[in-house]
Amino acid sequence: MRRWLLAGTVVVVALGAIGLGLLPTTEDGFRSTAVTSARDTRSAVLSTREVGAAALRGRVLQSYVNIAVQRARDQVSTAITDLVDTEVPGPSSQRLRDEVLPMLTRSAARINDVATASSTEDRDALSRAVDELSGLAGELGGVR
Amino acid sequence: MKRVFAITLGILTAIGGFVDIGDLVANAVTGARFGMRLAWVVVVGVIGICVYAEMCGRVAAVSGRPVFDLVRERLGPRIGLTNLIGSYLATLFTLSAEIGGVAIAVELATSVHYLLWVPIAAFVVWVVIWRVKFEMMERIFGLAGLSLVVFVVALIQLAPPWGQLAGQAVTPVVPAGEDWATYGFFAVALFAAALTPYEVFFFSSGGVEERWTRKDLVVSRLNVFIGFPLGGLLSLGVMGTAATLFLPLGVRVESLDQVALPVAVALGKLGLAVVILGFFAATFGAALETGLSAGYTIAQYFGWQWGKLVRPREAARFHTVVLVSILIGVAMLLTTTDPIMITEYSLVFSAVALPLTYLPILIVANDRDYLGDQVNSRTANALGVTYLVIILVVAVAAVPLMIISGMGG
């Protein structure tokens, strides 16, 4: 009897969990995903900015820059995938998506710029990329 | 003079050996998100590990037998088995995380992807466990781990707002933008990082490997009461640098390279090189300790010959367990699961398994058959019981907090 009760409970919980996963995305749910993606990207952008600024002052090894930038790129691409994979439930979510997605893709591009400029030792390009990352961080911080 | 040197070396080793990948990750992540508002957990954790490591050292020195051996004998095979399963699984997760940490440290120095380093790192860990003498192994990596002092130097160089950091430390409230569940989750992770089960098994088995006797009780206590708290200071250094650089920016720490960034900003390439060496030494040393602890726990439970005092051929089953554990650890990493995620899970699992490790130690440390006049004093018991209550609360809260906070959000 106890075993059946336990098995029944497990089945109900499993079905509940599956059911929750199948529910359509709400406007709030979409906003939450967009805000999280923007927050994670902002974190990666600011971290890369610090790495870039340290590289400009000759304070980091190139091997370290490569790895740090690669990690930041992975973080941003995960954020982009999360947002793109989320169903858009309505027009206001569509507007939010159209606002946030370009920021994320620009972030990925600017992070790439840091990697390229650092590996080619192009100080001007590196300095520009660092400045642009600061601007992007400000924009991403405005996503609420 | 020779004795003073031995004691100093032991203390230095304890300082360097205290910090592992769990401490590095948990302290940096919490520093970046909460500033020093969770520093009190490090202090509570260090006192806890001191209380129980002292018991383990005393048990090893007086009885000449490691704790796990006595747990099975004193509490019987069933309870011993529960203890074994919990502790072994927690140690296995930690071993995998440490090997991942070694690979990431080499990746930071070479730019070659860490997954390519994982099998090599694991092989070298196994060879060192197989071939190198216990004392030499412990001393080399413990002392090299001391290079993590660079975090304290970097913190001073960063010239943080000391008053603000101190203010955060003495008013441990949840900051704006965070919630209680997340705060609680990271408190649990930090506590588990300080009291990881393998530390006490390694400490007690290491005492037996080094042939401690009653005469060595002073050495054991100095190692514990000076070495571990100073090791805790390194942890606070990691937290402080992350709090200084990342908290004002709102950057979240999600990888080991970020943990090193404040040191690079403060001290430049030399500091970065030293911190990468520190990561390597701390994680490699901990991989050796967890690999050995995996072998110790199983061999001691089943009553097999164990340790590095005997030739590998005479302790074949012990060495087989070590090898298989390392292979399982490597397999976990080669699924491409992020080592930092494995570290976070290992901390949660350690938190759940803590009572299984620490309750038996408290019982054995009160048994006159093993310890004679060296059983726990009233103070030791009062502290031991207090910590056991904290450990139980942490163990019960770990999984719910993990779920509610979404693994810390």
Commentary on this structure:
The complex is a heterodimer of chains A (144) and B (409). The longest helix of chain A has 30 residues, at 27-56. Chain A is built from five helices and no strands. Chain A has a single domain (26-141), classed as Up-down Bundle (Four Helix Bundle (Hemerythrin (Met), subunit A)), CATH 1.20.120. The mean pLDDT of chain A is 89. Chain A has 144 residues and is an all-alpha fold. Chain B is an all-alpha fold and 409 residues long. Chain B has one domain: Up-down Bundle (Amino acid/polyamine transporter I). Helix content of chain B is 80%, strand content 0%. Chain B has 16 helices and no strands. Chain B has helices spanning 2-18, 21-34, 39-63, 67-110, 114-131, 134-145, 150-157, 162-170, 180-194, 197-209, 217-245, 256-302, 316-334, 339-364, 368-371, 378-404. The longest helix of chain B is centred in the last third of the chain and has 47 residues, at 256-302. The termini of chain B are far apart. The mean pLDDT of chain B is 90. The interface between A and B is medium-sized, with 22 and 25 residues.
Which helices and strands appear, and what pairs or packs with what?
The complex is a heterodimer of chains A (144) and B (409).
Chain A: H1 2-22, H2 27-56, H3 62-85, H4 91-119, H5 123-141
Helix pairs in contact in A: 2-3, 2-4, 2-5, 3-4, 4-5
Chain B: H1 2-18, H2 21-34, H3 39-63, H4 67-110, H5 114-131, H6 134-145, H7 150-157, H8 162-170, H9 180-194, H10 197-209, H11 217-245, H12 256-302, H13 316-334, H14 339-364, H15 368-371, H16 378-404
Helix pairs in contact in B: 1-6, 1-11, 2-9, 2-11, 2-12, 2-14, 3-9, 3-10, 3-11, 3-14, 3-16, 4-5, 4-10, 4-12, 4-13, 4-14, 5-12, 5-13, 6-12, 7-11, 7-12, 9-14, 9-16, 10-12, 12-13, 14-16
Ends distance of chain B: 53 Å
Number of helices of chain A: 5
Q: Number of folding domains of chain A?
A: 1
CATH architecture of chain B: Up-down Bundle
